[in-house]
Amino acid sequence: MEVGGYKDVADWPKMGPSLLIATALIVAIRTAKWSATIDARNSNCELDKEIDFAANLARRVLSTLMKLSPSIFPSRKEPWYKATNEDHPE
C-alpha cells in the first residue's frame, strides 16, 4: 500500500491537559462559595457529583469546539493509504 497523502486529525494526547484544566476550573468556580466547615460525610458525595458534572461539561464544550473550530487545537498529520492492485501491476 502506498501513502496517498496526509490528513490533519486532532492530537488527543496533547489535549488531555486542556481537559483536566477546564474540569478543575469548573469545579473551583462551582465550589468557591462552599463553607469550609461542610460535614465530611456529605461533602465527598457532593464533591464527586460536582467533579462528574464538570468533567461532562468540559468534554461537551471541547467536543463542540472541535466540531466548529478544529484549527485552534493541536493536530497531527496522519497518512492515508491508496489501495494498490498487486495482481495487475502497471
Structure in words:
This protein is of the alpha+beta class and 90 residues long. The chain has one domain. The protein has two helices and two strands; from the N terminus they run βααβ. Helix 1 crosses helix 2. The longest helix is centred in the middle third of the chain and has 29 residues.
Concise account of the structure shown:
By secondary structure, the protein is of the alpha+beta class.
Helix and strand topology:
Blueprint: E1 2-10, H1 12-31, H2 40-68, E2 75-82
Helix pairs in contact: 1-2
Please trace the helix and strand order, writing H or E for each element: EHHE
Radius of gyration: 22 Å
N-to-C CA distance: 14 Å
Number of helices: 2
Summarize the amount of helix as a percent range. 40-55%
State the shape: elongated
Mean pLDDT: 83
Structural class: alpha+beta
Strand content: 15-25%
Distinctive features:
two-stranded antiparallel ribbon; alpha+beta; 19% strand; 90 residues; elongated
